[in-house]
Amino acid sequence: EAQRAARQFHAVEPENRLVARTLESEWNNKLAALDQLQQDFHIEIDKAPLTLTAAQRDQITALAQDLPAIWRAPSTSPEDKKRLIRVLIKDVTLTRQKENASVRIQIHWKTGATSQLTVDHPQPPSQAIQTPSAVIDFVREKAKILPDREIGQELNRLRFLSGRRKKFHQGMIKWIRYRYKIPTACPSAPTSQFPGMRGDSRFSAHAIAKELGISIHQVH
Q: How far apart are CA 51 and CA 57, in angstroms?
């Protein structure tokens, strides 16, 4: 209510002095009420300090011995994890290793202990979302014998993901072939590209018409 009163006061035009004085008075009243509530709250807290039973104290002590369980618990929110890290870690030093494009991480714990590990340097966003090279190689090989839709199904069956961590569909495979200039031996649309049998053992309407010596309209 105090925040709402403040927004109302700041929204009024300066020339509306009477309205501004009224809103300012209401704002001051809300702030006074808020201050009183805060004082009452602290008085009540002081009257009834938090007490733990022996069982609760033992449970907290046991949890402190298994921090991974606390971290993975569904009830542990991201905010809780940040507080937990602040309790455990004093500071972290990052040092970029130019010779192998990695980052050395040195963690100084509140206990005085030190941990060190090395990780790969994060890729720029433009590189991080690129199609994995394994997927490109797969599409290049399978485009010889499968249409785009079936290539996408095969990639999903093998649990490949795109650069944006998504499953594949026909349109994505078509874009990959266009982007990396990969020809297909199994086009989705009718075409006269193939004089004979396609990669998936099918024939285009034009190839059938030529083979049988009839018109394309008769084939259709």
A: 10
Q: What's the confidence (pLDDT) of residue 31?
A: 92
pLDDT at 106 over 90: yes
Report how far residue 167's alpha carbon sits from residue 152's, in angstroms, rounded to the nearest whole number.
Answer: 8
Read off the pLDDT band of 192 (50, 70, 90): low
